[in-house]
Amino acid sequence: MKLAVITSLVAGAAAFTSTPSPAFKTSSSTQLFAGPFKAKVQYVPCIATEDLPAPGQATSGVAGGLAICIAVDENGSVYALGDKCPPINQPLSFGRVAGGCIEDPVLGTKFNLKTGEVEGKWCPGGVGKLLGGLFDPSGVPVYPVKTGKGTVDVQVDVNAKANFESQYWSGVLDAQGKANGKYY
């Protein structure tokens, strides 16, 4: 029975590590995902200004097809980070903002609001102690953000989603409808 449990845990962890994830840059002025489309960096609306969370909290939004975490620190400064928290991609926007960092609500890792880098221990809490040993520490992407005209705008590569999706397999049963990825 113990062997079965250990085997299940290892297989579960391998499921997360078997597919290499693309590396990201912490500056939106470079391509997030390699692909056939050239990077096109611009400010795009993410959330309405009225939806900004209270200081010390975060919320989620979408900008250019990318999941974005909008965090507000104790002083009211607004930050934009990728909303996928490594190593298992749960939403970072559920985290608590304090001391210039946002804390992963599940595994306990703290990420710097300005750089996206890990601050302190990697995966220190609960199940994070088990999972953290299987993965190298990695940060989250950060994006320039500005508020005004009723929206919070985030500077992203608007072609990042298309480049990511260009890596999908295109075959008989692809989601686009035709085997060559074109629509009917």
From TrEMBL:
Q: Where's the Rieske domain?
A: 43-154
Name the UniProt record assigns to this protein: Rieske domain-containing protein
SUPFAM superfamilies, A to Z: ISP domain (SSF50022)
Which biological process terms from the Gene Ontology are attached to this UniProt entry? Answer: nitrate assimilation
Question: What taxonomic classification does the UniProt entry list for its organism?
Answer: Eukaryota, Sar, Stramenopiles, Ochrophyta, Bacillariophyta
Q: Does the keyword Calcium apply?
A: no
Q: Which residues form a coiled coil?
A: none
Q: Does the keyword Membrane apply?
A: no
Q: Name one Pfam family in it.
A: Rieske_2
